[in-house]
Amino acid sequence: MMKTRNQLFKLSAALLVSAGVLASCTDNENVAGKGKASVYLTDAPIDAENVTGVYISVMGVELNGPNGWVTVSSFEEPKSLNLLDYQNGESYFLADQTMDAGVYSEARLILDITEKSESSRNVTPGCYLEFANGEVQPLFVPSGSQSGYKAKGDFTISANSTTDVIIDFDVRKAVVEAGNSGQYILKPVLRLVSNENIGNINGTINSSLTNYSKVVVFIYENDTFTEAELETTDSSNGFDNAVSSALVNEAGEFTLAFINQGTYDLYFVAYDQEGSSLSLIGEQQDVEVKAQTDTEISLELEISL
Questions:
Q1: Of 96, 95, 106, nearest to 35 (Cα)?
Q2: What is the dihedral of CA 301, 277, 42, 179, to 10 degrees?
């Protein structure tokens, strides 16, 4: 069964909706003047259960709009963030700024990533992985010091209102190990969405999941999932075209947050203790997401391997 309910969403554990939001426009002549952009970070879960931290060090944030790149904020001291702290609808406020109204298409994070060579590999201080056994491994951000760490997605800053802009990391796609080198790379795999276009999916599974180490739900644009999504390689964890994903908790609950309005399909995947996917254990087709709306889902899964 599925139902929706309209509401304004809280800043954490749900969607970002500013009190002064106006309907979006695509005609810059209709949004002349100044508006405020508030920029937030969020993240989808990572596959590896032995990874306890994915840290980045942010020096500033910029937006690309009608007059080119504009600085939202440059920080006096780098902001060190563990992306894994901001999942399931949680977000981190980075900065806000009043700027020209109009259509924007990119965001760029300026990271503390002065490249240096260490043990025959490039590293970027301030960006690193932390493992459950206490080990720390550096993350390398290719070309990050030249071009920044970019996210793409159109949104409109309307005059005399505030637009919340969410930079959504997908760490499970972004963090890859370069072959057998032992070097970890942070690829630019991000979504850029804004509050006037996004909704939330809150779900409950009414089936026992005790046979599995974890269950992950992947969300796809309607009718885009194929069997090729199950394939993994040295540079891919599978499910490459998923819009986002979420962990299902022990109570069978999950939240897919910051999803652009549209029609989607959900696929539920069981993992074993080693973190290897076992199989698809269920799906939900044709889930409608509406802007500034929670969609509530309750479903049974046919548990079989």
A1: 96
A2: -170
| pTM for the model | 0.81
What span, in angstroms and rounded, lies between the C-alpha atoms of 212 and 222?
27
Give the total residue count for the chain. Answer: 305
CA dihedral for 289, 294, 299, 304, sign (positive or negative): positive
pLDDT score of 303: 54
Q: What is the mean pLDDT of residues 124-144?
A: 82
Q: What is the per-residue pLDDT across 255-293, written as a single tens digit (0 to 9) for each?
A: 999 999 999 999 999 887 666 666 888 899 999 999 999
